[in-house]
Amino acid sequence: MRNILIIGAGRSASSLIQYLLKKSNQENLHLTIADLSLELAQRKTNNHKNATAIALDIFDENQRKTEIQKADIIISMLPAHLHIEIARDCIVYKKHMVTASYVSDAMQELDAAAKENNLIFMNEIGLDPGIDHMSAMKVIDEIREKGGKVILFESFCGGLVAPESDTNLWNYKFTWAPRNLVLAGQGGAAKFIQEGTYKYIPYHKLFRRTEFMEVEGYGRFEGYANRDSLKYRSVYGLDNALTLYRGTIRRVGFSRAWNMFVQLGMTDDTYVIDNSETISYREFTNLFLPYHPTDSVEIKLRLSLGIEQDDIMWDKLLELDILNPNKIVGLKNASPAQILEKILSDSWTLQPNDKDMIVMYHKFGYEINGSKKQIDSKMVCIGDDQTYTAMAKTVGLPVAMATLQILNGNITTTGVQLPINKEVYLPILKELEEYGVIFHEKEMPYLGYNPDKIRG
């Protein structure tokens, strides 16, 4: 049998493991599911005869190397910074490797060694990064093949709550790591290019500069800019595109509301709050407000944010119970961001029957035969339940499919890479449609950023 070692059995591995187990008899596969928690790994085997669960501490060098030597291909579903030791072992023992994570500098340094050993190190083959690369490159390549030149590329993606589970004023629940949301946009200005001009949005302005989009059947969404939209400019071959903008999707109104936390300073992760474990939610909120001998925390908060008591923004804050004097933070040496994450988790944790939703939206503007055209490509994926979420499907399935394609010799390009070649994206996008990950592409009139000029 062909042995696949899966390291990390967390939430994103559910659909990946289910897919490979379903194919295991037909494809002659045996899965070793390794996690620090043996119990978690055992749960993910579903008692399947072609799966073995093991407890694995990746910092135990001997055990890690022993398991890697036994496998034909390694899937790492660990946090990105933990991939590199596994990748180095894969070079030594000549094993292919697949991850859903961004290519780090340390991983990129292994490119030459991977090629020398005829190895495929496939990265960024989850959702975002992953499905975004593949679905974008498919359309970009098609435009080029018919003689067109891409002048505009916008790409948005978001993990949201499905409409039937959308039960709060923020139209949002945590579908992935809550910390990532709380820290979103920090660490430098958002950078992109529009109509040939570089644009920068500093963090304190990020959530007030949004783009809007409609998705048929699901209504209106907004998008705020990712930190570096130009990271993939050369990768996609779009060095001459006039507009390149990548962003994160939320429901309309979320960004304006989130901006309240940014302006107050509650998303700061650079310092620790004294006595954080003993303070109440109300005391935490008051930390960011000026002293006043008579005004209540409510009045100070509204004055500080410039909102009236009949503003929906006020209702959104009240819904989170951040003024409750009886709820205690209970976290030692916590930063404001960590405390905010705790408060939000009270309200935004998915309930057992809740479903999540992934929305992806690409916009392509191109020139062909002297005229400008546009293609909009949209995808919505709804989760099945709390195990097989839309996030688990869209992150895990492409990883599983790429693993099988590599094992079966259908992907042959060696080295550290992204899924931007046809041999990778064509079969995987086609197979993803069977699992409800379907892109609807539509020709549109090209609008750009100055519709009047084009119409005139």
TrEMBL record:
Residues 126-437 form the Saccharopine dehydrogenase-like C-terminal domain. SUPFAM superfamilies: Glyceraldehyde-3-phosphate dehydrogenase-like, C-terminal domain, NAD(P)-binding Rossmann-fold domains. Keywords: Oxidoreductase. Transmembrane segments: none annotated. InterPro entries: AASS, NAD(P)-bd_dom_sf, Sacchrp_dh-like_C, Sacchrp_dh_NADP-bd. Signal peptide: none annotated. Residues 4-121 form the Saccharopine dehydrogenase NADP binding domain. It comes from the Bacteria. This is Saccharopine dehydrogenase family protein. It comes from Flavobacterium myungsuense.
